[in-house]
Amino acid sequence: MYFEGGYTYSNFLMNMLGIFAFVVWFWLLVIIYGDLFRRHDISGWGKALWVIALVLTFTSASLPT
Asked: Would you tell me which of 14, 23, 32, 35 could form a disulfide with 2, CB atoms 3.0–4.6 Å apart?
């Protein structure tokens, strides 16, 4: 839990903010992948490197600190 002392209204707001941030981040990944694979001026290796970079970014951003 984010806060001690049970499940309060502020805990609810923090949970909703976290869920919203995750949904926005996931939707941005979908948009970026769609734009990346629609492009014809980038080679297959370039697209593969972009996918690896985005996957590493996503996994490093989701790791707990």
From this structure: 14
Scanning the structure block, which residue is given the tokens 């996957």?
Answer: 55
Q: pTM of the full predicted structure?
A: 0.64
- What number of residues does the chain have? 65
Contacting residues for 24 by C-beta, under 8 A, at least 6 apart? none
Q: Quick one: tokens of 24?
A: 């926005």
**Domain boundaries, given as residue ranges, for the chain:** 23-62
CA nearest to 35, candidates 51, 53, 14: 51
pLDDT tens-digit readout, 3-20? 566 778 888 898 899 899
